[in-house]
């Protein structure tokens, strides 16, 4: 039975794949993660997660073109699948519903910007 | 993006890349290498090459994740082949049990010996390392024209402590001798050895305190005990503030208990430390300049230079001693690291010590034994593997690649050396207690020592690698056709290294045998010297009681009344020491004005009868002559030194600065007694009648009564007369025998090593002989068919090996002769001749051993049915 829930780190990686779009391959994702979160991560850890997300069916991937700085090697470009988008959506909705149930925030004056994006 | 210059030094680390490719799934290789490469070049650009390389390794390590690692059950490494190789190796091992046993056993023996010696050498080299401050501890020594001495005056220690506080963290004086004292608590009393040391002593030595602290010796009446003594006296409790009685004289408060000092500490004989003030009775004794009775130790400050401080001390003493010192005395500091292995001096110069020589000697022997065992192992493995040329041929024909064959041979040699290693561990644990006993050490099994395992396993792998290399490299290179046709053969040249090896092994074995016999000869020679008294049937003890002298007549009387005692005597020094020296004697006909020192002891009436002095002329002291107070006995050496032909009745005068001359008459001459080392000539000695306080009691047991039944009777009387003193007696003959300990230790170890060398040599020879016999199976078959007799064949096969042994004899005999003469040169006075029969025995023994070893194979080869030999195609 395949696990289909989304972990915290997985969710961030999935979002980053979406952000990076055509540039979404392991090295770039790791870079982006570090610059967005100020936390360091190894490419191996990111790759492992991408692999897992692929197994869960949230991501697909295909080999892209090669560049000189990669010594002529091709890269694997990841993109989000429909089920990947759905699981991100669900995750967001779930959190919003939690936020709304929190009285202090639900009153309105503490509404956080990104919820209205 | 810029075009990057793919220079070699801006490439990712090659090894890391190789490692990655080794474990990474093949289908991931391209993208991962690409990603890591990008990361590398980016880091290189933004930070530095070093950082980039570092990071690359980090990234590679982080790819060791389950998803990325390839399945190692792929085709590239074939586990069934590995299992097959192991099975084949194991079957080979079982197929020729004798050969396997020789090979594995020989290597295991060599390894075990190397381990034992390694432990021993390590123990010697780590001497005194137990003490925390061992890097900074120094001892004050002085070179005198005659010798280098460790004893100082209290004034010297005090001067250093007061004058150089900048250079010394601490200066500590210790009574310059280990002191035996009786420690009593309630009804328990034990005689223990220990030191009287100044307050800072425990801190200087870095004693590990179980109870109490390093400041325990502040009060004059305090004592700290070793854990084992504390346990004997008080059991397993905290004994702080308990009061024990020392020598029935002083009440001392226990202020600390320290962990027993290890055998390889200079202070290992210290089972207690009490205060120097207690020993000197008061502090006034700390500034005496005439009595050399102290050891002076110091702990230098880390920034002080030992040589500079030595010079400062020397200068300070010269100033203080001006007028008294004739300029021949030089003072210097000896660092703790040199105490054990590098503190022998001759004419004021450090010379290579005996202890250091032993360390080298053992290291060399250990290395030799190990090398011999290794060479044997490789040699036998190689010789054996040549028989397997056909197997290699078949394997190749069936499609084995060369690397598979190489792997097989390495696997096999690894299996063998693993077994040998395991066996050597068993041998080590079995022989260590014995070895400790023989070498006088207390080493523990090294099972928890990481270095030991690293070294042993490393060595095992190297051996396996070397032993497997020849078959692996050579046999795997055969052309299968040749190997199968059996045209493979070893030429004459191939056997030369093996012959050299046999000669080498037997040279060492023969030399060791000669050495062992000579050492034993030397011991026997010393044992055969006339002792000059009768140690058998006598006990001696030093009653630790202040009223010993007062009650001496009482104990004598009571002991004689029991009927189990033949006679009782007393002396101020033990019969087994050469303590007590004085000079200033003059006699008629004295040739020169040179002051000759004599060993002088005071003895009681009946002492002569008790210890069994043998009179050359004259008589013993007697109660019938009141004038015997002014009489003396001399020994034969003294008679010869004085140059007197007929000494009885001659006068002797003792002159001294502080007393009127004393006149004595010689009433008897006795045979020389061996009181000191039996390997040294006896010193000239003079015996006075009860001039000094008696300290030793000697009791000769009635020869009609057995010792074991007499001892309890004597003990009962002793306890009645001296209730405070323990009945710590020693059998005088056992004490005499202990004088041979050092030499007997050498003899034991030499015997052990020669035995091993002989076993290892024979194993090697046996293996080699069986190999040769097998190589020549067909030749022997044909010879037999043509009519050769068994004895002719035996002769044929044995002759070569006998020749090798003879060559070994020719090398070993002069070698052993020169080494043994060197060893015996140290024994100037008592020295066994080197007998020719020793060489004959050793050489003949080796020859017989060779023939027996070889004959076993030779005869087996000669009596086989030639049909079998010739049919074995």
What features would you describe in this structure?
The complex is a heterodimer of chains A (117) and B (873). With 117 residues, chain A is α+β, with helices and mostly antiparallel strands. Chain A has a single domain (8-116), classed as Arc Repressor Mutant, subunit A (Orthogonal Bundle). In chain A, 54% of the residues lie in helices and 13% in strands. Chain A is built from five helices and two strands. In chain A, strand 1 and strand 2 (74-80) form a beta hairpin. Chain A starts with 7 loop residues before the first helix and ends in an 11-residue tail after the last helix. The model of chain A has no long low-confidence stretch (mean pLDDT 83). By secondary structure, chain B is an alpha+beta fold. Chain B has four domains: 8-61, no CATH class; 137-339, no CATH class; 356-525 and 741-871, no CATH class; 538-731, no CATH class. In chain B, strands 17, 18, 19, 20, 21, 22, 23 and 24 form an eight-stranded mixed β-sheet that branches. Chain B has a six-stranded mixed barrel with strand order 4-5-10-7-9-8. In chain B, strands 1, 2, 3, 11 and 12 form a five-stranded antiparallel β-sheet that branches. Chain B is globular and about 110 Å long. The interface between A and B is medium-sized, with 23 and 23 residues.
Count of β-strands of chain B: 26
CATH architecture of chain A: Orthogonal Bundle
Major β-sheet of chain A, in short? Answer: 2 strands, antiparallel
Which structural class matches the secondary elements of chain B?
alpha+beta
What number of domains of chain A?
1
Brief sketch in words of this structure:
The complex is a heterodimer of chains A (117) and B (873). Chain A has 117 residues and is of the alpha+beta class.
Spell out the key features of this protein.
heterodimer, A: 117 residues, alpha+beta, Arc Repressor Mutant, subunit A, two-stranded antiparallel ribbon, 5 helices, B: 873 residues, eight-stranded mixed beta sheet, six-stranded mixed beta barrel, 27 helices, globular, disordered N terminus
